[in-house]
Specification:
With about 180 residues, this protein is mostly helical. The chain has one domain. Helix content is about 70%, strand content about 0%. It is built from 8 helices and no strands. The model has no long low-confidence stretch (mean pLDDT about 80).
Length: about 180
């Protein structure tokens, strides 16, 4: 939590208390993991694509069927691969040495990616193609965005943090009546 500002640290501590002991059945935990993966691969990635000036690609990624199972995972993976190829066809978009991942991580990307992977990967779900493809899209889009003069990077980070908190609320609610 050292990389969070004081307000973010306060929120993180409050959610840590709520998350502790919130584990439910494996079925509910799997549903929660799919929710985290879906947010990361569709709305979260779409936001970065749009910020990087890749609006058509953002719309395609965001309009993919919500990820709730292996079939929808495969469908989203296919769209992610096609989108990644499309972006590459427009030429090189950046170098890892000049990319700052901090805004992406602060916006909740790494947390959602890790939450989904911790539960779904050991159960045999083929997450690697989607996670690596989505990460690649986010890298390219956020790098492209960083080169634009008129972007609101901090505003985007804060908006995504608010979405991530909404997702966390939905995850905590998932199965609370079970």
């Amino acid at each position: 939590m050292a990389d969070l500002d004081p307000e973010e640290q306060h929120l993180a501590r409050a959610y840590q208390r709520r998350v502790a002991g919130s584990r439910r059945t494996d079925e509910i935990e799997e549903r929660r993991a799919w929710m985290a993966l879906d947010w990361y691969a569709r709305p979260f990635a779409g936001t970065w694509l749009r910020l990087g000036g890749l609006g058509a690609d953002a719309t395609e990624v965001e309009s993919t069927t919500p990820i709730t199972d292996d079939a929808s995972l495969e469908a989203c993976t296919h769209v992610t691969r096609r989108t990644r190829r499309s972006i590459w066809e427009h030429g090189p978009v950046g170098s890892f040495s000049r990319w700052n991942r901090d805004p992406v991580d602060r916006a909740g990307g790494r947390a959602a990616e890790e939450a989904a992977g911790r539960f779904l990967r050991p159960r045999g779900h083929a997450l690697t193609p989607l996670l690596s493809g989505t990460w690649s899209l986010i890298f390219r889009a956020s790098y492209a965005a960083s080169r634009l003069e008129s972007i609101d990077l901090e505003g985007t980070v804060h908006a995504l943090q608010a979405e991530a908190l909404g997702l966390l609320e939905a995850i905590l609610e998932c199965g609370s009546n079970s």
